[in-house]
Amino acid sequence: MGAVRASGPFVVAKGEGAYIWDAAGNKYIDSTAGLWFTNVGHGRTAIADAVARQLSTLAHYSGFGDITSDVTAALADRLAAIAPIPGSKVFFTSGGSDSVDSAVKLARRYWHEMGKPDKKIVVGRTKAYHGMHVGGTALSGLPLNRENHGELMPDAATVEWDDAKSLLGLIERIGADNIAAFFVEPIIGAGGIYLPPDGYLAEVRQICRDHDVLFVVDEVVTGFGRIGGSWFASSRFGLEPDMITTAKGLTSGYVPMGAVFIAPKIAEPFYAGGVWWRHGYTYGGHAGAAAAAMANLDIIESEGLLEEAARLESDLHVVLAPLADLPAVSEIRSGLGAVAAVQLADPSTAPAVIGALRKHGVSGRAAGQGALQISPAFVMTSAQVSDMAQRIGDALA
Ligand SMILES: Cc1ncc(COP(=O)(O)O)c(C=O)c1O
C-alpha cells in the first residue's frame, strides 16, 4: 500500500507467452509466471474458448452432497489418474489457501473418526508458506505473516525446514498421539525458494509413516509440472503422500481453482455412510474452472510441457550461475524444477531492484528475504531465458 501511494500501481494490461505489457504498452519478460502459475504461458485462447463454451452450457451449480457437474467429475477422474496417490479422491477448492485449510481440517476429522481425537497438532516448517487462511497462516514458518493477528490456530507447531531430526525430536517430545499431520512444500516457495537438502523429503516421509502422522505435501507451487519432468514433486521423489494440496498450475491461473488429493484410507470413513464431513466451498469444482483445467492439462500434454519445465531446470541453473559474481548478489539457488532464486546480498534493496528490473524490461518480484523469484512459464524458450538473465544482470549491475 505504501508503494502504491509512493509511486502508483504497476498496471498489467496484456499477456502473451512469456511476456506481459503494462497499460502504457511497455513490454516485459515475465520472470515469475504471475504468482508462479502461468505454466502454459499467457494468452491461451484454447483455455478462454473452453471456459466460454462451458459457461454458456453450465457455469456452475453445486459441489455439495451428491451433486457435481459432468466436466467436474471428468476432471476429478483425470486428476486421480495422474495423482501420485493410488486411488486418490479429489476435493475441489477455489485456490491454494482453501486447499491447505481443507487438508488441515480433514486430517483432524480423520483422526477423530479413527478414535484418536487427540491427534490435532499440525506441524509445519520454518520458512514455509501455506497460504493466507487462518490455518495455513498458523502453519507457516514466516513470523511476519503470523504476527499481530492474535492467536490464529491452537495446535500448530514448527520444526526446522532442513532437518528431519527436528521433526523426529518434536514427535518424541509431544508424542505422535497428539500429532495429526506434517505439511511440507517440496521446494520452499514464497519463503524464499529453498531446495530440499538431499534425502530430506524421503526421510521425513518415512518418519511420518513410522509414527502414524499424516504426510501432506503442499504442491501449490510445484504441482502440474513446475517440479520439472513430472506432474508433481511427489511423483519425482516417490513420496506417496496421504494428501497433496494444489492450485495455481491446475488451471495455469486462467481462473481460480484448487484441489486436494486424498488417499482412499482418509476419505473412506466419510464414504462409509453415517458420517458427514461438513466442509465445502460454493465455488469448489466450479464447472467453468474445471473446463479451464481440462484445456490446460490438454496443452501441457500435447505440447510436452513437463519436459519443457525440465529443460528450464537446467537452463536456469546454467544462465543464472554467473550472476552470483555480482556484488549485489549473495547466492543463486537453482537446479530443481523450473524455479530459482537470485538472492540479494542486501534484502532491503529488493524494492529498488524490482524497479530497476522493470526499467530493463523484466517483471519480477522478491520472495522471502530479498530473493528474486524466477519461475517462468514453461513456454519460455532457452533464448528468452538467456535474454532474461542478461537483463537481470544489467539491472543488478
Ligand atoms: C505452497 C503454497 N501453499 C498455498 C498457497 C496459497 O495459495 P492461494 O494464494 O491460491 O490461496 C501458496 C501461494 O502462493 C503457496 O505457494
Structure overview:
- It is a single chain.
- This protein is of the alpha/beta class and 397 residues long.
- The chain has two domains: 2-30 and 304-396, Aspartate Aminotransferase, domain 1, CATH 3.90.1150.10; 48-302, Type I PLP-dependent aspartate aminotransferase-like (Major domain) (Aspartate Aminotransferase, domain 2, 3-Layer(aba) Sandwich).
- 39% of the residues lie in helices and 16% in strands.
- The chain is built from 15 helices and 15 strands.
- The protein has helices at residues 2-7, 33-36, 45-57, 70-82, 96-113, 134-139, 143-146, 164-174, 200-211, 233-236, 264-271, 287-302, 305-320, 350-359, 382-396, and strands at 12-16, 19-22, 27-30, 89-93, 121-125, 156-159, 179-184, 214-218, 243-246, 258-262, 329-333, 340-344, 362-363, 366-367, 371-374.
- The strands form three sheets. A seven-stranded mixed β-sheet has the order 4-10-9-8-7-5-6, with helices on both faces. It has a four-stranded mixed β-sheet with strand order 1-2-3-13.
- β14 and β15 (371-374) form a beta hairpin.
- α3 runs antiparallel to α12 (287-302), α4 crosses α12 (287-302) and α14 packs across α15.
- The protein is globular.
- It starts with a helix and ends with a helix.
- The mean pLDDT is 97.
- Residues 35, 95-97, 100, 129-131, 185, 189-190, 218, 220-221, 247 line the site of pyridoxal-5'-phosphate.
Record keyword descriptors for this entry.
397 residues, alpha/beta, Aspartate Aminotransferase, domain 1, Aspartate Aminotransferase, domain 2, 7-stranded mixed sheet, 4-stranded mixed sheet, 15 helices, 15 strands, 39% helix, globular, binds pyridoxal-5'-phosphate
